[in-house]
Amino acid sequence: MCAISEYKNQRAALLRRLAISAVATSSLWLASAAVAKDLDDVLPRCEALQVAVSLPQVPNATLYGELCARADRTPSAVQLLVHGATYNSYYSDWPYRPGFYSYVRQMTGAGYATFNIERLGYGRSTHPDSTLVSLQNGTEALHQVVQKLRSGEIGGHAFSRVIWVGHSLGTLYGWLEAQVSNDVDAFVLTGLLHTLKPSWLQLALQSAYSANLDPKFATSGLDAGYLTFKPGTRGPLFYWAPGAQPNVIALDERLKDSVSGPEFGAAVPLFNSPPVQTAPSQAIKVPTLLVLGEHDRVMCDEDGLICSQDNVTRQEAPYYSQARLHVLIAPNAGHDLQLHETAPATGEEILDWLSSELGAESLARE
User: Fold this and answer.
1) CA gyration radius for the chain?
2) Sign of CA dihedral 343, 346, 351, 354
3) Residue 10 scores a pLDDT above 70
4) Where do the DSSP E strands lie in the chain?
5) What are phi and psi of 77, to 5 degrees?
6) Inter-axis angle of helices 169-180 and 261-271, to 10 degrees?
7) What does the pLDDT look like over 120-174, one tens digit per residue?
8) How far is it, in rounded angstroms, from Cα 164 to Cα 146?
């Protein structure tokens, strides 16, 4: 069985309580109750799940995820949300100002279901020895999740369309999943190109240390191969300061996760100017939206690319020779697109692209 629990959106419950406490007459109470019912319909209802995956080297492995959809809809399409290194499901469902920052809220409000996964070795998913958090095991685990979403083994509803939404290392896993099977209908790939700034890689190497040396993970039992970034370094690594709020960056530090050193080490050659002909992204054959912050410090500015739509398209198109590729540059944003102030506008652009590529049938049935 996959299900652990089911919970209603906390904000909806809070709004109901505030509405009820504010009324002074029965007519006002009835009006407030109607508003609360509408909120219950629009805001997502989510189910927390542990999905069993079969990995010969990692017995009894499970991936944690949250399946969300509006209460008044039965979606036919699901977006599989795949986070990056040192992040987890919080990235796509940010707990601070969720009505503004939560990608889950925005997409479910538009009628999609979302399955917000935590990859092998992250969050509430299985943490094997760091050497077993490999690209091969990680890809196979996510591939099984895609198949289970299609078959109805996750949440009891079979989705006819699966959209992969990856961020950073989650984008790289999208490339690798396409090599395994053509079972994804569209890719929304954010925060990763096929070039890497030397200055960023040097900063990342200087900022990384064993997670068990960090106060957050000191009692976690992680082996020394799990890494995280030192306190105070997430801002320079992942944000464009003029476009982000300091309290968001501070919360990012408190919510940060770890990353397997072997996993990250194996990933770097695949996005650090690999040969075009052998790049795993060549396996993608479906519509693909590539989304990048204008000031993504991993790849843009200084010793990197000037990240305009034309420049990124020119560089990346050869790596996606079989895909129908569209490039979106988010202005005033850095690497963590979802945690910058332009996040809602970027989400609207993603929705417009999905509608144009997949059509209205990708949305929910009443």
Assistant:
1) 20
2) negative
3) no
4) 3-7, 44-52, 62-70, 74-75, 77-82, 113-117, 161-167, 186-190, 208-210, 226-229, 259-260, 288-293, 325-330, 364-365
5) -125, 140
6) 80
7) 999 999 999 999 999 999 999 999 999 999 999 999 999 999 999 999 999 999 9
8) 9
Mean of pLDDT values over 346-363: 88
pTM: 0.89
Q: Are 286 and 185 in contact (CB under 8 A)?
A: yes
pLDDT score of 362: 57
- % of the chain beyond a pLDDT of 70: 87
350 phi-psi bin (left φ>0, alpha ψ -120 to 50, beta other): alpha
pLDDT, residue 73, reads: 82
Residue 324 confidence (pLDDT) above 90: yes
Q: In degrees rounded to 5, what are phi and psi of residue 260?
A: -70, 125
- Give the Cα separation of 191 and 298 in Å (integer): 8
Closest to 128 measured CA to CA, from 196, 64, 57, 191: 57
Half-sphere exposure of 104 (CA within 13 A, CB side): 29
pLDDT, mean over the chain: 89
DSSP type of residue 223: -
Please give the structure tokens belonging to residue 347: 């989400």
Point out which residues pair with 163 in neighbouring strands: 79, 186
